[in-house]
């Protein structure tokens, strides 16, 4: 008799929590520096939301996929979404830009990074002490002067340890640790860290961008040694908060759990809306009071719910299942011109 594997709603619920934080984190970007409540919230969000998301992505990437499958599921969607942002920028926002596929727009770096992580992980795992090597690479990339957005290389390296840790993670360990004592300790740790962000003044001499993984130490106003030590602390906070919240998230199916299966649609389309509001209005720059801050957060929650509609998820699922030949045919049908090297590469793939 065939049995159906029960869905793990803990990770669905965790992803719901994280995607809401992703939306909030972006929408408060324009006003957090002048709003004490949003300032603390920004620090709290960026300290762990991407590490946790990437850790979960790694957990669900244990199965190796072929290059062809990865290209179809990640690179083709990346090109499609880059095109969407490009059209939004030039037609609606009237922002001067080009279709720089080597320089991801807005949050699309994550899709490109996911492709690189999944492609490289099987080979990296063959190296001795690969976790230590990945952390070392994440620390040292901050000393380089490589363009911060070129193929998202800095963020790819900085966040790679979280992805690798996810691929190694054993769900049974979390089950064993989810007892009242450890949950109390986790909650105490989260409250202590939040209190630190509220009460401790010295960290405010730094920027929340120390958690972004995008910028080198010189940009952040740090020397190499200071930057490495700071990033090591960021790693510790990222891992600590990721596991602490995992101990507290509900394992039960809730009314909102379905959103955890639709995070790609939210991730993509909230960026388009944010880019429009940022480029065409001043509304996000004028969130000054606590009441306005709460309204903005409520808006972000409602937006997450709206963007998790089945129609938008159907769209993202369709894009992730496009085959390369069909994709290039659609571009030709609509007279869309991509950089020449993209066509050369696709023709080589089709020839094989």
Count of all domains = 1
**End-to-end span in angstroms?**
42 Å
What is the element string, with H for helices and E for strands?
A: HHHHHHHHHHHHHHH
Helix proportion: 55-70%
Runs in which pLDDT lies below 50 for 5 or more consecutive residues are 334-352
Share of β-strand residues: under 5%
What's the story with the biggest beta sheet? none
| Radius of gyration, in angstroms, nearest whole number | 21 Å
Please describe the structure with a list of short key phrases separated by commas or semicolons.
352 residues, mainly alpha, 15 helices, 0% strand
Structure description:
The chain has 352 residues and is an all-alpha fold. The chain has one domain (9-321). Helices cover 66% and strands 0% of the residues. The chain has helices at 9-27, 36-46, 49-59, 67-93, 109-124, 130-140, 153-168, 171-177, 180-199, 224-248, 263-280, 290-307, 310-319, 324-333, 340-351. The longest helix has 27 residues, at 67-93. The radius of gyration is 21 Å and the shape is globular.
Quick recap:
This protein has 352 residues and is mainly α. The chain has helices at residues 9-27, 36-46, 49-59, 67-93, 109-124, 130-140, 153-168, 171-177, 180-199, 224-248, 263-280, 290-307, 310-319, 324-333, 340-351. It has one domain (9-321).
Outline the fold blueprint:
Blueprint: H1 9-27, H2 36-46, H3 49-59, H4 67-93, H5 109-124, H6 130-140, H7 153-168, H8 171-177, H9 180-199, H10 224-248, H11 263-280, H12 290-307, H13 310-319, H14 324-333, H15 340-351
